[in-house]
């Protein structure tokens, strides 16, 4: 292993893994849409119903792809929340108690 790889920050490694998972999700969605279109085209060739099978297969592929995208994204978000629950959330909003205390302290 080179020195470059041994000096990597574990947080950077985790972000790289998340990036690869996101890319995998995108490839999965695109392959599901393509598979639906291909199956629809094959049905058209088999039955001779020119655009109907392709359109139906494409729509089914898009629906399955979006369902898979949402499901996998929710799983990935839960995993990220478990690993680092406070990272990347920004500055917390003030509560109502904080607002009332600020008003009382001002002249």
Q: How far is the N terminus from the C terminus?
A: 63 Å
Order of helices and strands: HHHH
| Shape annotation | elongated
Count of runs of 4 or more consecutive helical residues: 4
Structural class estimated from helices and strands: mainly alpha
Question: Any idea what the radius of gyration is?
Answer: 24 Å
The percentage helix is: over 70%
User: What is the average per-residue confidence, as pLDDT, rounded to a whole number?
Assistant: 80
How would a textbook summarize the main sheet? none
Strand content: under 5%
Write down how many β-strands occur, each being a DSSP E stretch of 2 or more residues.
0
Low-confidence stretches: none
Describe the structure.
- With 107 residues, this protein is mainly α.
- It has a domain at 12-80.
- It is 80% helix and 0% strand.
- It has helices at residues 3-6, 10-47, 50-83, 96-105.
- α2 runs antiparallel to α3.
- The longest helix has 38 residues, at 10-47.
- The N and C termini lie far apart (63 Å).
Which structural traits does this protein have?
single chain; 107 residues; mainly alpha; 4 helices; 0% strand
Q: Layout of SSEs?
A:
Layout: H1 3-6, H2 10-47, H3 50-83, H4 96-105
Structure at a glance:
The protein is mainly alpha-helical and 107 residues long. The chain contains four helices and no strands.
